[in-house]
Amino acid sequence: MKRGSAGGHYSIGSEQALDEIAAKLREIIDRHGPRAVALYSGTAIVSFFPMATIAGAFMKSIGSPMRFSANTIDKPGAQIAQAAHGTWQGGSPPFEAAEAWILIGLNPVISKSGGFPPNNPARRLKEAVARGMKLIVIDPRATESTARAHIHLQSKPGTDPQLLAAMIRVILAEGLADSDFILENVQGVEELRKAVHPFSPEAVAVEAGVSADNIVEAARVFAQSRYAGIGLGVGPSFSLHGGLTDYLATCMISLCGFWSRAGDVVQRPHVLLPPYKAKAQASPPFKGWGIGPQMRVRGLTGSAAGMPTAALSEEILLEGEGQVRALIVLAGNPLMAWPDQLLAHKALSSLELLVTTGYEMSSTAKLSHYVIAPKLTLEIDGDSSELEFVKYNGLLRGIEGPYGRYAPAIVPPPEGSDLIEDWELFYELAKRLGLGLTISTSYGLMDHAHLPPNSVTLDMTVKPTSSELLEMLYANSRVPLSEVKNHPHGAMFDVEERVYPRDADCTARLDVGNPLMLEELSEIASAPVTAELDFPYLMICRRINNIMNSLGRSNPQLLSRTPYNPAYLHPDDMVALGATEGDVISLESKFGSVKAIIMADGDLRRGTVSITHSFGGLPGEDDDPSVMGCNIGRLLSTTAEFDPITGIPRMSALPVRVTVGL
Ligand SMILES: Nc1nc2c(c(=O)[nH]1)N[C@H]1C(S)=C(S)[C@@H](COP(=O)(O)OP(=O)(O)OC[C@H]3O[C@@H](n4cnc5c(=O)[nH]c(N)nc54)[C@H](O)[C@@H]3O)O[C@H]1N2
Ligand SMILES: Nc1nc2c(c(=O)[nH]1)N[C@H]1C(S)=C(S)[C@@H](COP(=O)(O)OP(=O)(O)OC[C@H]3O[C@@H](n4cnc5c(=O)[nH]c(N)nc54)[C@H](O)[C@@H]3O)O[C@H]1N2
Ligand SMILES: [Mo]
Questions:
Q1: What SS3 string covers 453-468?
Q2: Is 397 in the pocket of ligand 2 (CB under 6 A)?
Q3: Which of 157, 154, 193 minimizes the C-alpha distance to 174?
Q4: What's the gap in Å between 223 CA and the centre of ligand 3?
Q5: Is 549 in the pocket of ligand 2 (CB under 6 A)?
Q6: Residue 72 CB–ligand 2 contact under 6 Å
């Protein structure tokens, strides 16, 4: 689809679209240099692994560092914590062995995400509790994952680092740490001990609005387990100290020695990725920030989490050398997802070229000069390598067991359709610009993944098919691709790896005393969370079952209950506000306001408003919240409060005012 001068879109052939986009890109690069071209990849890149790799190769080939993704508006602290703490090469024991699990602002029963087995989490949770595992939930809402909790710390949003610091204090004070493991593998314990000292369970209990006994009990249950894990979700990540929260959680695991030891079975072996040797030793901390390309705004740079997406709107709007003039949106929907929707709208409207790939006219597509329709996932071959990769990106992520799958395309595209695959956009553009493309399986992964380099330079005269691409990428797979292909429904392969002992000369240590992280903690200690008189409620994030971010909203069957995103409030708060279910309210933050429809939720902590994102429309489209809901991105500011490393702004625990009766 091409946007006409009147703003509406009309169909053109894909060849013509590619020619025109390539010509425009060439013109922009000639005039302003390669930095004027930016890429944003959204969550749907997971539908076909090579697409992100090829998009990255394209950016490298044109020479632009402006490569952004949804990661830095999700859980970027996960990679920052890995950099500050280091990682454990041997991985983690099996979930089945866990005697306790802490969920911090993570609701895996709905989201199938984060540090909890993603394969049927509801059943896994039920079975685990039945075998005696103690579940500890830290969440202002009694979520679908909380029903079986031994302890639910229904804390005030934004108090996670304090709660973890208090638990660490208990673990260290009561001698519950694994001193043998620490002696050999961990450094910085004394610094950590000092840093958590101000966080007594009693003081934190007041701050977080929970009982001190429960904090102490949670710490003891965790540390006295033979093995226990922690799953982190977007809740803490959006509440401004996501990197620190993830770091403290990882430190707590290391203090207790909850990592696999020599001789243990490797729980997350490779199948489609090349073989690796898991050793019972640390990969040392690495430089995770101040490393990437410079932004021109707010002193932000790239980091181990990637480029700061929350600064891209400003970067686009800031005139001068290096200004971004063209943006390719790959399988994402910035106008639903980016914080500060009005700013994003202004920025994306100002571009000389906006290209979006996607199969529906999303809010972003509506603004785009070109909308490229890709084949759908069931129309292309697919594989499970993403499930193997994800373990390198954060604590306790990924699937256990040697699972692999290669699923051939299931249905052909509709007859007469003119479609390309997402990755072909970049191949075709590179070809038209006279550039080559070198792809790699380890592309985008940090060094601690210890993957052998595996680069393939694509033939730019004869286009590979997507199955040939997968053949190239998995040429050195642990299980031969031909064998994986024999099981189109997926299988557990016969891969049994054991964790090797540590190298005799290994001096690497996991660091629980990172100065920058502990400094952030001490700043929190002296700046307690206070309620804001004018904005007495805290808005918190929430995922809903039928919709994946913005995806699914165009299918009315998936929105059978409500076509909008209700603002959930505690019934007692509704009484206090004089509100009843179905009332239209105004939700106001210091930065913006939206209209929403109230629904009661007795599972909430009082004083919170729980509402899901990626609803509403473009500015001007969604004045009636009963039609398509509201875009809560309009309540957020990217500049008022943000993480200085990754740029992620406050997206949860956001002070808001609720006004009834408009
Ligand atoms: N206020 C607030 N803001 C948030 C969040 C929040 O909780 N609250 N969550 C944040 C998080 S965690 C994330 S990850 C981001 C998400 O940000 P995005 O990834 O930008 O948003 P999605 O809605 O997931 O966009 C996916 C798009 O890809 C399309 N799509 C689906 N499959 C394919 C495919 O195979 N190919 C192509 N080309 N397109 C496809 C879908 O139709 C949809 O338009 O939003 C962030 N923003
Ligand atoms: N069905 C469905 N599944 C999805 C998605 C979807 O939209 N729909 N989105 C996908 C994406 S992109 C992602 S990133 C994942 C996210 O998956 P999750 O991280 O599980 O996402 P949420 O349910 O938004 O947030 C988790 C919990 O954080 C709590 N919370 C909010 N603020 C705080 C806080 O300050 N501290 C604490 N401790 N808790 C807090 C909320 O009450 C909520 O229960 O889900 C993925 N899976
Ligand atoms: Mo996400």
A1: CCEEECCCCCCCCHHH
A2: no
A3: 193
A4: 30
A5: yes
A6: no
DSSP label at residue 411:
S
- Tell me the CA–centroid distance for residue 133 and ligand 2, in Å: 23
CA distances from 164 to 156, 160, 189, 437, 453 (A): 14, 6, 15, 45, 38
Is there an atom of ligand 1 within 6 Å of 73 CB?
Answer: yes
Q: Extract the tokens encoding 437.
A: 């493309």
Task: Map 514-560 to HEC letters.
Answer: CHHHHHHHHHHHHCCCCCECCECEEEECCCCCCCECCECCCCHHHHC
H or E element: which one contains 469? helix 466-473
Instruction: Tell me the per-residue pLDDT of 101-117, one tens digit each, with 9 for 90 and over.
Output: 999 999 999 999 989 99
The one-letter amino acid at 226 = R
* Distance from C-alpha of 456 to C-alpha of 459, rounded to nearest angstrom: 9
Q: What's the pTM value of the predicted model, to 2 decimals?
A: 0.98
| Ligand 3 mean position, distance from CA 43 (Å) | 7
Ligand 1 pocket member 633 (CB < 6 A): yes
> Which run of H or E residues covers position 138?
strand 134-138
Which residues does residue 356 pair with via DSSP β-bridges, in sequence order? Answer: 329, 371
- DSSP, collapsed to helix, strand or coil, labels residue 333 as coil
DSSP state of 645: T
Beta-carbon neighbours within 5 Å of ion ligand 3: 74
Distance CA 629, CA 624 (A): 7
User: Closest Cα partner for 448 from 392, 398, 508?
Assistant: 392
Binned at pLDDT 50, 70 and 90, residue 7 comes out as confident
Per-residue pLDDT tens digits for 272-287:
998 889 999 999 999 9
Tokens of 621: 């489209």
> Measured between alpha carbons, how far is residue 24 from residues 35, 57, 324, 421, 545 in Å?
15, 19, 14, 21, 40
Structure tokens at 522: 């001490």
| CB atoms inside a 10 Å sphere around CB 489 | 6
CA 550 vs. chain centroid, Å, equals 15
CA distance 407 to 378: 9
Nearest atom, ligand 2, residue 143 CA? 44
